[in-house]
Amino acid sequence: MAGYGVANERLRVLEELEREIGASLQSAGTVILELSKEKAGERLLERQAAQFSAAIQKVESELSAQIRYLTQVATGQPHEGSSYSARKACQMALNRVDYARLKLGELARACEQMLEP
């Protein structure tokens, strides 16, 4: 059940990122609205621009972390909360067993043919 905790935490982070993106869009909208005025408030512009920049940096950083995590999952590298790597290793072992069984059958047939007069 630990996998659900990791998945829930990942979803929570993504929801937080969604809120952060909304806030950054709001900051950008405020900057655009302020720039459309004849007398733009320089302090407000600077504050909103700084908020926008910080939000974008946070979103970029968190999305990069999410992508790194998904890359680990997709490549089968071990990571906490997933059984993908173990399932992949098991499937590969079963494939090797099937292949060995096939080759042993071929060897047995070849030996029987050599022993027949």
UniProtKB/TrEMBL annotation:
Pfam families: Med11. GO terms for biological process: regulation of transcription by RNA polymerase II. Belongs to the Mediator complex subunit 11 family. Its main location: nucleus. The keyword Transcription regulation applies. Keywords: Activator, Nucleus, Transcription, Transcription regulation. This is Mediator of RNA polymerase II transcription subunit 11. InterPro entries: Mediator_Med11. It is found in: Nucleus. GO terms for molecular function: transcription coregulator activity. GO terms for cellular component: mediator complex. Gene3D superfamilies: 1.10.287.3490. It comes from the Eukaryota. The lineage of its organism: Eukaryota, Metazoa, Chordata, Craniata, Vertebrata. Component of the Mediator complex, a coactivator involved in the regulated transcription of nearly all RNA polymerase II-dependent genes. Mediator functions as a bridge to convey information from gene-specific regulatory proteins to the basal RNA polymerase II transcription machinery. Mediator is recruited to promoters by direct interactions with regulatory proteins and serves as a scaffold for the assembly of a functional pre-initiation complex with RNA polymerase II and the general transcription factors.
